[in-house]
Specification:
With 249 residues, this protein is α/β, with parallel strands linked by helices. Helices cover 34% and strands 13% of the residues. It has one domain: Rossmann fold (3-Layer(aba) Sandwich), CATH 3.40.50. The mean pLDDT is 91.
Length: 249
């Protein structure tokens, strides 16, 4: 896959370089300990292969089709019969979605809009999504895409994440589109909709399921995702927030 992003900013490296003494560290980090973060589709396939049901929820802007293809290759190398569903197949028609988001978009103004009150559920034919059932003949059932957890399935919950700066780089290149749309638009219009609609809705959804996420995956590098247990992420966020409050004047 050709990684399409429009920017002069380098992609975050897979392994953090050690800064020269006295030089600014452009990749500041928080130490979790050794062997806490994993990378690659092979290690991810190994981690999920013992489960029968896997839900791959996530943020907009992820290259979901590519992720599915690469993960499926790794799973089939392990001899597993997989059954995949795509949550985005159950989005409402783009015209309907355009109608429900338009009150928040400020008309033709390129800057001003209104933070949406919508929920991610409002973008889906929810009754169809909730009617989905795992295939009993498959070794491993997987559903992928933003809102995949809305099925209510019981299984291993993964969250595919992506920083907002990478979303902007991809939108400038026209390699992604807004939530519930079928093709990219002008990058400025896309950013406005991200800001007032998509990111608000997706952040609300992420907060609602974060306590249940089993694995969280960084998808900045499509060929080599990095991932870690959700429990470790929650612990790290808790420790970092405590440190911030201690240092506050």
């Amino acid at each position: 896959m050709k990684f399409v992003r429009k920017t002069d900013q380098h992609l975050l490296p897979e392994v953090k370089p050690t800064p020269a003494e006295g030089k600014y560290d452009i990749y500041p980090s928080y130490k979790l300990g050794d062997n806490q973060i994993y990378s690659g589709f092979g290690s991810l396939a190994e981690a999920i292969s013992e489960y029968r049901v896997v839900i791959l929820d996530g943020y907009a802007g992820v290259f979901y089709d590519h992720f599915r293809e690469k993960l499926d290759e790794s799973l089939k190398k392990r001899g597993l019969k997989t059954s995949w569903l795509n949550a985005s197949d159950f989005l409402k028609h783009p015209d309907i979605i355009e109608e429900i988001v338009s009150p928040f978009m400020g008309g033709d103004d390129l800057v001003f809009g209104k933070r949406t009150s919508l929920q991610l559920e409002d973008f889906y034919d929810l009754h169809l999504l909730k009617e989905l059932k795992p295939d009993p003949e498959a070794d491993l059932n997987l559903i992928i895409g933003p809102g995949a957890s809305l099925t209510g399935w019981n299984g291993l919950l993964l969250y595919l994440d992506l920083p907002k700066n990478e979303i902007q780089f991809r939108s400038r290149a026209g390699s992604i589109s807004n939530l519930g749309t079928t093709k990219p638009a002008d990058s400025k219009k896309m950013y406005k909709r991200f800001y007032f609609i998509d990111w608000i809705v997706l952040n609300r959804h992420k907060r609602s399921i974060l306590s249940k996420v089993d694995l969280i995956i960084d998808t900045q590098r499509p060929e080599c995702p990095s991932w870690m247990p959700g429990e470790l992420l929650r612990y790290s966020l808790s420790v970092m927030s405590q440190n911030v409050f201690r240092k506050a004047p």
